[in-house]
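Course assignment 3, question 2. Fill in each field.
Student: A.L.
Task: Predict the tertiary structure for the chain below.
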Amino acid sequence: MGRPKALLDYRGETFLARLVRIFARVCDPVLVVLGHHAEIIQERVDANFVINPDPDRGQLSSLQTALVALPAGAEGFLFTPVDSPTVEEWTVSRLVEEFRPDAIVIPRFNGRRGHPVCVPRSFIPAFLSLAPTEQTRAAINRHADQVHYVDVEDAGILADIDDPASYHALKGVR
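Answer field:
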C-alpha cells in the first residue's frame, strides 16, 4: 500500500480510529494489535495497543497476541482485520446482541460470510492452538456446527482493502 493501512482515510477517520470507535460501543477494552509501523500508528490513534513481536508471521499471530492479552473477565471477543473498515455500526451491535456462549457469531451478506467475527471465550484455546501456517478460518471450520450466521444488509462486512486499486475504489477515485 506504501503506507500503513491503519492510517488510511475512510469517511473522515482513519481505518483504525473508525474501527476502534465502533467497537468501543460494545467492547471494553478494545485491543489493537500492532506490528509494522507501530510507533507512527500509536502517535495518531488513541487505543489500547498490544505489540505483536513477530508480525511477519501473519494475521493469525496478531489474533493470538490479542487473545493472550485479553482480560480474564472477558466473555468473548470480536475480531476484524484493519483493512476491513467499512462495516456499519449497527452490524457490530447486532453481532453482539446475537452473542451466545456456545457459538461463533459471523455476519453474512448475500450468502458470503465476513467480518467482524464474535467469539465466546470458550473458543480461545481453538484459536491459540492453530499452527503458524494456518488461518483463523481453520478454527472456525473445525467448529462449523457451532457457527451462528447473522444475515445483514451490510456489504461492508466483505470489504478487504488490500491494494491501492481497492482503496481507490473505496474512495471513488479512478
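Instructor remarks: The mean pLDDT is 93. The chain has one domain: 5-171.
Grade: pending
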